[in-house]
Design brief:
By secondary structure, the chain is mostly beta strands. The chain is 13% helix and 36% strand. The strands form 6 sheets. Strands 13, 15, 16, 17, 18, 19, 20 and 21 form an 8-stranded mixed β-sheet that branches. Strands 7-8-6-12 form a 4-stranded antiparallel β-sheet, with no helix packed on it. Strands 22-14-23-24 form a 4-stranded antiparallel β-sheet. The model has no long low-confidence stretch (mean pLDDT 89).
Length: 334
């Protein structure tokens, strides 16, 4: 489970030009703007990731002027809080929030410890419409692996561990995540973590029907894809609803197909992948260099910014992957 709030080490502190009251800290791959003099290199802190929903109480009330108050559903309960988003201060990108341990009496100081539940932090998720909520038939099955890649800022060790290895680079498509599976000849459609009632009149079942997946999808396989288009969250500006596959899962073998096998599989059923930018990407980059690469136009609609990039290790090996979300996209710059 994602660590929305955790104990981190401040790797370094750097000044911000023409700023008297703020400076910038680095926590692994993350960069945050903080109060000047609040930290020095080597200090421990509590770090809250972007898309964290913070309780509307002390010590977070100072954020009410900069963070939107919003609702979400977390662990089956509707919650309200202050949503952390990527922001800029004096031209510096700030992702997340770093606060001193002293603001949380009695909290652990063990580096890496997950304190999400301890501090009452939830994850922001778009709340389903009432119509979509009525369509929920169950949860996500345990026999299909979820595909939620970690952001590179949380897994910077990959950059050294897999340096020189071959990955394939694809566009991170801005849409709604979906899974279509046929298991024991039973077909199901999933919206992120929930199974949807069969024959429901929603975009997931419409896509299944559009591509005739009930007939074409091979038994004991699952397709994971982004649905984009009118009426779907996202900024690609398409006129028709489309589906872009980013993974095919072999349920019997409990593994994702390699790039070559996925392309062959999808050609046979008439579907397309997310845009593949480079199928021979040699990983020899820093976190900042990858973030710079992610600032590009979408290959689906060159008039808009891409959400970012996804990198997956080539070959029939354990699934190693990560995503790089564009700061320009997060800041809604055109």
């Amino acid at each position: 489970m994602r660590k929305l709030a955790s104990i981190r080490i401040v790797d370094d502190v750097s000044p911000i030009a023409k700023a008297d009251f703020i400076e910038r800290v680095r926590l692994g791959g993350w960069r945050c703007v903080v109060k000047k003099g609040e930290f020095k290199s080597g200090d421990k802190c509590v770090y809250f990731e972007i898309d964290s929903l913070l309780p509307i109480k002390e010590p977070f009330l100072f954020l009410e002027k900069t963070c939107a108050k919003t609702r979400s559903v977390y662990d089956g309960q509707e919650v309200e809080g202050l949503r952390l988003r990527t922001m800029t201060f004096r031209g510096q990108v700030s992702q997340g929030l770093a606060l001193p341990l002293s603001m949380f009496p009695g909290i652990t100081d063990v580096v890496g410890e997950d304190v999400t539940k301890t501090l009452g932090v939830a994850k922001y998720e778009l709340i389903l419409s009432e119509d979509m909520a009525k369509d929920i038939a169950g949860g996500f099955p345990g026999y299909i692996s979820k595909s939620d890649e970690e952001r590179i800022q949380n897994v910077t060790s990959i950059l050294n561990e897999y340096r020189g290895c071959v990955f394939y680079e694809s566009e991170k498509v801005d849409g709604t995540s979906s899974t279509f599976a046929k298991y024991d000849n039973e077909f199901d459609a999933y919206q992120k973590a929930v199974r949807l009632k069969k024959n429901s009149d929603n975009v997931y079942w419409k896509i299944a029907q559009k591509y005739n997946l009930l007939e074409k999808l091979t038994n004991n396989f699952a397709i994971q894809a982004e649905i984009v288009g009118p009426g779907v969250e996202g900024k690609l500006g398409l006129k028709e609803t489309e589906c872009f596959v980013f993974g095919v899962f072999d349920i019997d073998k409990s593994m994702f197909l390699s790039l070559e096998d996925m392309l062959y599989f999808l050609k046979d059923i008439g579907m397309k992948t997310v845009p593949i930018i480079d199928d021979n990407f040699i990983l020899n980059h820093t976190c900042d260099e990858l973030l710079k690469l992610a600032e590009r136009k979408s290959l689906i609609n060159p008039k808009v910014n891409a959400e970012g990039l996804v990198f997956r290790l080539r070959g029939p090996v354990e699934k190693i992957s990560f995503k790089v979300i564009s700061n320009r996209y997060l800041l809604n710059e055109l």
